[in-house]
Amino acid sequence: MPLLTKPFLRLAATASALALGACATVGPDFKAPAGPGGAAAAGYSMAGDMAAQGVRLSPETRAAGPWWQAFGSPDLDAAMREALASNPTVAEANANLGKAQAQLAATRGAQSPRVDARASAQRERINTTSFGFAFPSPTINLYSIGAGVSYDLDLFGGLKRATEADQARVDRMAREADAAYLTLTGEMALQAMRIASLRGQISAVKQIVAADIKNIRMVQKAQSLGGEARSALSIGVGQLAEDEALLPPLQRELDAARHQMALLAGKSPAEWTAPDFDLEKLNASAIVPVSLPSELVRRRPDILAAEAELHAATAGIGVATANLYPNIRLSAELTQSSIKPEKIFNYSSSGWNLLSGVTAPILNGGTLKARRRVAEAETRAAVARYQQTVLRAFVQVSDVLSALGTDQAAIDSLKRANMAADSGLKDSQTAYRLGGGTLLQVVQSERTQSRARRALIEVQGNRYEDLVQLYAATATDWRPAS
Questions:
Q1: CA spacing 20 to 30 A to 186: which of 296, 309, 320, 425?
Q2: Of the candidates 183, 99, 128, the residue with the CA atom closest to the CA atom of residue 478
């Protein structure tokens, strides 16, 4: 239908010519913040911090698969798959990302020509008397069909900057989704390590309780032979009760960790049971690669999200600046109207118009300039938030590295303490059995051994927890191997 398309071709040609001449995009162009330099680029630790053994700073830390596979636990792999598929927080992050992507599509669409079609059929009575005519007022049917097209030339790039801002918001939501995944996997592994540690501590206490019962039976046997006073039995029974009292608090912590793991898996405790993780079945890599600070700022999701937020704020200055300048909007309409449907597409039934409209702010009470100052202030705030996010990330890594250093020192000391406690207990038991010692000495030796064994298991569990936090803090890959 050449009659319908001719005006639109003319409008398109005019818009193209003007658009080619409109090359100004106001506002600052975004530049990613510079990474750390100097001493900050070489590491995380403060002078005097205890060095973490088995940690190597590296510019490349990506592994062949998800980071938690370094612990060699099939149960942890299965739990992670459940959590990644069902966790509500991750689902919310993905939904927010989808929302941002839809908003970007809407903003980007505003840069394209808009075409609307219209059609109507109406019946009306023309009041000829009001025009001074004496003949009767006729009643007619009126049919019309047409279309309109409009296009914003975006002379100073306001729409372009708005699209840039929404793209940055999409990037931010994507990074926040990554952060949600990384946080989830870190929390899931952390609860697994706590379960393993608590189960180990409970097992150690149960062994002590079994030893207490054995000692009581020994005392009862000695009493039956007249070789032990009744006070010895009271001492043994008291020690048994004291050791048994250690179990309920540990069990409470274990139940809470298992329930928390179900929550992370997106299940209720009644419908999902956490695996029975065991410290002895977990592995720890001999060397853990840790990202250099300069690499961390390019990989850690919360830092990248803060950078994207800064990008959006910077683009917002351009939007506010473009609103200070004139803008041109082109539009055209074509309408075919007739009182007879069969003649609606005749040339005599056509009508069209072309319009070029210019809008320019003149008096607005300083509102537009104030909005630009708002955008500039928001950008400065985004810079500060970005810097704070980077600092928090570096401090978190520094804390974990220091904790790993103290963990290893504590483990080495407690291993020696356990060896000494085991040797002392054997000596006390031998002396008691040969009549050269007392039951009280045996009980004290067992108590010392119990404390040393529990302390070692607890610190070993802490080290695994700190390793988990190190992997999460350095944004080690959580994605399945491709």
A1: 309
A2: 183
